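Complex 543.
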Amino acid sequence: MAMRLATVRTTTDEQVAAQSASPWWRTAVVYQVYLRSFADSNGDGIGDLAGLRSRLPYLSWLGVDAVWINPHYPSGGADGGYDICDYRAVDPEYGDVSDLEALVADARDLGLRVVLDVVPNHTSDRHPWFQAALADPDCPEAARYHFAPPSEEPPNNWQSLFGGPAWSRTPDGRWYLHLFAPEQPDLNWRDPAVAADFERTLRFWLDRGVSGFRVDVAYGLFKDPGLRDNPGAYSPTLFGHGPEQAMTWNQPEVHDVWRRWRSICDEYPETMLVGEVCLADPQEVALYSRPDEMHQSFCFRLLKSPWSTASFADGVRSALDAFGRVGAPVSWVLGNHDKDRQVTRFGGGAVGTARARAAALLVLSLPGSAYLYAGDELGLPQADVPDEAKRDPIFFRSGGARSGRDGCRVPMPWNTEPGVGFSPAGTAQPWLPIPGDWDRYAVSRQTRDGGSVLTLYRRALALREAHPALGSGDATVSTRGDVLTVRCTGADGSVIRCVVNMGSGTALVRSRGTVLLASSTTVRRSPASVALPPDTAVWLADS
Ligand code: GLC
Ligand code: CA
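Predicted structure with calcium ion bound:
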């Protein structure tokens, strides 16, 4: 936020003082770029850093504060880049370190910050450490993973989150632990060499001007020292992990890692850490963002909430309460590269789109930071990816029972030409097939359409920037039947209500205030009230 102040003409000195006292990340809108799918500069069908760099003006025009890039490192390619072979390099498919530096510099010129993804729970099986450990069980690198001697049965009942046992065998019969794919061996964080190497990695990128890291599987890293059986099984339908998985996640020692990483970031002004903490209990999630740990941890509650006032109100209240207790902002998430696209989750088609539009107004009104997943601002649905084109290990390891995450990772449609502008015209096939009708969602089309999802996002982001009640106020949540209201009060005393109708009939909201923004043109204003059709939301400035 601080970097954008110069462009806000009406800011008073007091506001400047208040804003600069509040670090940028507390209220930032961070745009998540799935690098492989964002923009391909050289026509190999794979998004890359130069492609992203060329699209930075779009992100600045949209009005976000920062860009978080999914892993850009050399990778074994088994899990969309989350199996890393070299933490201090760039995968040649994406460019090189100088491209990353150029990206950071261009972003800065536009008032944007760059946040990288770091993956400390596991490496690739092609990482030199794991390769050394395979070749020689007694080498120092072997102690950096979890190996167990050959035996009939695996050491315990732990399961991979991608399906099947969490233990696989080496060619010489030993077991090794992988809580994700077999190509992602888990690191042993009790070996000090692991911690030391990650500290080098953080500094390597911080020295290149990045503004921080999204920390993958931040609730992992340490495991039960006795490798005891987990008491129960994980189900992806839960909000996150809980006591049933007590031996694999959320070990107390992990908090010391975040204290150490925080102290490193403190040496680099205005940098931050945001953790992926998939625990069911919001209070446990918030503990990862105590004042001396990570600056933020994602609130995934709304990502798994069905479209109902009870679920959304509970998701918002429980997060405001939990993060409020530790003094951290809530980091709201409605979509990412691991979940079905919002439009589809909320029912698909016109209904799903209307709900996604309304949900955007809801999260962008709430105090805290908001993480937007590339393509959600276009209202992209989950794409149908044919099985033969799929890449996600979840699909393969579940024997096809789980459809996997490819459908939310399909390349961005930029224009209405063949190939929708993802790659230079007339070049290679995109790495995942783009549905034939995606020109309808193209950026070029939506920028010209005053009623598009993109226009709605852009207006919402501009209003959020301009009104202290939005994104940085105090919020209270109430429900009346199918109507959810968030009342946001700014530091200047201004009040904006975000009212969402989650029911099937029109809702009348009493108000003489101004309609700042409506999620749909079907919202009607009369002198003393506003009529909200089903699945719409409105921002009301009450005078
Ligand atoms: C995180 C990532 C996901 C990845 C997993 C293993 O959950 O968001 O994409 O598969 O970690 O690294
Ligand atoms: Ca490329």
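Residues 40-42, 44, 46, 48 surround calcium ion (ligand 2) (CB under 6 Å).
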